[in-house]
Amino acid sequence: ASRPAVGAASSLRSAIPLQLAGATCADPPDGLPKYCCQGIVPDPAYAGTCECNPAWTHKECICKAHLHSRPCHHCMVHLPATNRWAKTFSKDELYQNCQDCVGKCKQELDGGDCGQFMGDIFGQKFPATAPGDVICTGDFLKEQLM
Asked: What's the chain's average pLDDT?
């Protein structure tokens, strides 16, 4: 089977242990696309897609793979590296604005239509640290753009 185009939004960090919901690459069920696995382990580029997670409900698929594949990424606009802000703002103030944005975003997402999945989504995207501590860095911004 040919691989569908997958953008950065569905790729997962290599530090995250990969699992598929309702399937295993060691013994893939009939109908699981071949591109979901690299041998006996899930392919990181496709592990977060709906077709590679047959146990996901429709709502879970929409929330995890489409609506919130890059949660709170809009908060990066506050970072100094965007070069969007006048010198009247200090770097510390811009970083704090980003952190505040992530906090507000996280709160809104937790209470929204996909709230029941947000713990899983944030845990998968940011397993070792708070989301704002990753999102509000110049390195993460560059990673998203490159």
From this structure: 87
